[in-house]
Design brief:
Number of strands: 25
Number of helices: 6
CATH superfamily of the largest domain: DD-peptidase/beta-lactamase superfamily
Helix content: 10-25%
Structural class: mainly beta
């Protein structure tokens, strides 16, 4: 692998390096989006698809690390409950159209990538993109659909009861309004908001994008405009005597994530102003500032633009950064905040008195 290395000096000039890009603004103009740090391991790997092909072959004919090393890479994690995870040592086990796969996707700045292996077919596909708006996983699946057409299994025909539920008759406004609301995932402390707009149901995951939902049944929806292979299903479940009203989000054959219905809390201007201030953490130097702008709270991290925070339940807001939970002291005054996001849990900030 003569064209692969970890760049531990971000100022290093890499021959034939591909620059990363990201589309911004209403005009979707391309702007440079490259890494500017010296972190290696989870990022800063420079490689080529040709070198990745050599790395892939190492799984079948070990030359680097030996069989024991590869066996450890493929060892799946296990929880204390005994449940086996799909995640191994940097690799994810799964299935695509009935075939076992081992893969991992990644992204940083304006770069996106995916390498998926089909071990039983001794076939792999690697896609490296230098635009943050691309979907390499979808492109990998398109390649597999062509090359492995004879091996891929067709989806099983739906049962009769599912055919009735999957009627193509559009849902009424009243039916869709029943699904609108705020839903909370306890495990990840993540919020989703669904609402009706222009006669269509939409979903807001708290980031920069809002997505339309296409009904494929009375309680089932697919997120619109998603590349083939990346389908996301949203299923709404009624409350029972044992479980509250909830929403389930599924990615392909993966285990669905469950979100419980939560009662929203629309704060007024006075309540929003109460959160304004500077917040500091013992673990990092930068100050996080909460400001009130155009009637909504915004979080301003160091060297980044202000990010809108959307109210969910009382004292809790969500945004692209994750979930922000304001904490209160014994006198019920806001004293700090807790940040939960994809890879961060219970990151505490104290409100600075000055």
């Amino acid at each position: 692998m003569t064209h692969t290395h970890f760049r531990d000096d971000h100022a290093e000039v890499v021959k034939h390096n591909a620059l990363g890009y990201q589309q911004e603004g209403r005009d979707k103009l391309f702007r440079l989006s490259v890494t500017n740090f010296d972190t290696v391991g989870a990022t800063s790997l420079h490689t080529t698809v040709e070198d990745l092909q050599l790395w892939d072959e190492n799984f079948y004919h070990p030359r680097v690390g030996g069989p024991a090393f590869l066996q450890q890479m493929l060892e799946r994690g296990k929880l204390n409950s005994g449940e086996q995870l799909d995640y191994a040592f940097g690799l994810v086990f799964g299935k695509y159209k009935g075939l076992p796969i081992v893969d991992h996707a990644g992204g940083d700045a304006g770069y996106r990538s995916d390498m998926t292996r089909f071990p039983e077919q001794h076939f792999s596909a690697a896609v490296l993109c230098n635009s943050g708006d691309t979907s390499p996983t979808g492109l990998v699946h398109q390649v597999a659909d062509i090359v492995l057409a004879k091996d891929l299994k067709k989806p099983e025909p739906p049962m009769v009861k599912d055919l009735v539920k999957s009627s193509e008759v559009p849902l009424t406004t009243q039916q869709m309004e029943a699904f609108a609301g705020i839903y909370w995932n306890r495990e990840d402390d993540e919020f989703l908001r669904t609402f009706l707009k222009d006669g269509k149901l939409e979903i807001d995951p708290g980031g920069e994008e809002v997505y339309a939902l296409n009904p494929v049944g009375e309680t089932r929806f697919h997120i619109a405009d998603v590349p083939s292979g990346d389908e996301v299903e949203i299923r709404f479940m009624k409350a029972t005597s044992e479980k509250p009203r909830r929403l389930e989000r599924s990615f392909g054959d993966q285990k669905p994530s469950v979100y419980e219905f939560a009662v929203g809390f629309p704060p007024n201007g006075t309540e929003l102003a109460e959160s304004v201030g500077a917040y500091v953490s013992e673990e990092i130097d930068p100050v996080y500032r909460i400001i009130l702008q155009d009637g909504s709270l915004r979080l301003v991290p160091l060297k980044h633009q202000a990010e809108a925070l959307r109210p969910t339940v009382r004292d809790v807001f969500s945004g692209y950064i994750g979930t922000v939970r304001f904490t209160r002291d014994a006198n019920q005054h806001i004293s700090g905040l807790v940040l939960n996001t994809g890879r961060i849990r219970n990151f505490r900030f104290a409100r600075r008195s000055d």
